[in-house]
Amino acid sequence: MEQEVRPMAGLNGSQSVDRALGLLSLVSYSGDDGSTLTDIVEQSGLNKPTARRLLLALIRSGLLEQDRLTRRYYLGQEAYVLGTLATRRYGLLQISRDSLGFLSAKTQDTSFLSIQRDSYSVCLHREEGTYPIRTHALQAGYRHPLGVGAGSLAILAAMPDDEVETILAVNEATLLAEYPNLNPDRIRADIAAARDKGFALNPGLILTNSWGIGIAIRYPDGRPAGALSIAAIDSRMQPGRQGELAALMRSETRKIEARLAHLQSQDDRPRRPNASKVAT
Question: Which residues belong to any copy of the IclR-ED domain (predicted)?
C-alpha cells in the first residue's frame, strides 16, 4: 500500500517539485524500456528513500506508473493526456509528418525530427527510407548533447552565440568523456560551417560511415523549434548530393515553419468570453 507523501527533511516545496519533475524527465528518456529504481537513483544522485517518495507522488498523480512484475517505471496515462493537450500549441511532430514522409520517399534515405530539451537534443521521430543499406545512429527517443549529430547541430547553430557558449559549457564534461571526436572547439567550427553553408553536416563523427545533414526549423520569432535531418551511408552523402538534399529539406522546412506560424496566429487570436461569465 502506498504511503502518504510528506515533505522531506531539508527540502522546501519548490525543491521537491523540481526534483520530482527531474525524475519524470529521467523516466521519459528510457522510453519503452522503462527505468528501474536503481537507474533513477544513479542518474539523479538522490538517495533511494527520497527517490522512492517522489516516484510515489508521481504515480499517484498519474504521471508515472510502475509495472507490477518488472517494477520498472514508465510514463503514465496523465503524461499522455497532458502531451495530447499540448499538441495544438507545440505539436511539431504532427505538422512535420507529411514532410518527413516526403523526404524519405523522395530520397530513399531515413529522415528524422529532433527538438531541444535543455542542453540536449531528442529525436522525436525516425522515418525509414527504402534504400537497402541504412544507418542506425539515431532512434526515436535517443538524446545527445546539442551539437552532436546533424539535427542537433542545426538546432545549436540556430541559437545566439551566448546561448551556444552556455550549452557548450554545460555539456563540456560529457562531450570530452563520451564523444571524443566532438569537443567544444570542434562543435564551434561545425557551427560556423553550418551557418555559412545553410545546413549542418555530420561527416560520420558519431558512427563511421553514418553521415547526416540537418536544417533547423524556426518559430516566427527566429527561435529554433527543432530540426529536420537525413542520414545515409557516406557514399550517398558526397558534396554534390549534399546540396540536393539540403534543397529538399529547406523546402520542407519552410512548409513546416508556415504551419507553425499559422498555428501561433490561431493561438494569438482574442478569445471569445465564456458565455457563462458574461454579465446579463
Answer: 78-262
The Cα-based distances of 126 to 5, 100, 278 in angstroms read 39, 8, 48
User: What are the residues whose beta carbons fall under 8 Å from the beta carbon of 106, sequence distance 6 or more?
Assistant: 248
Q: Which segment of 6-10, 97-101, 116-120, 243-247 scores lowest on mean pLDDT?
A: 6-10
Residues 186, 188, 194, 200: what is their CA dihedral angle, to the nearest 10 degrees? Answer: 50
What's the CATH architecture for 89-267?
2-Layer Sandwich (3.30)
218, three cell numbers = 524556426
This model's pTM is above 0.85: no
Residue 131 has pLDDT above 70, yes or no: yes
The fold adopted by the segment(s) 14-81 is: Arc Repressor Mutant, subunit A (1.10.10)
Section 243-269 average pLDDT: 87
CA distances from 158 to 28, 99, 137, 197 (A): 26, 20, 23, 13
Helix (H, G, I), strand (E, B) or coil at 182: coil
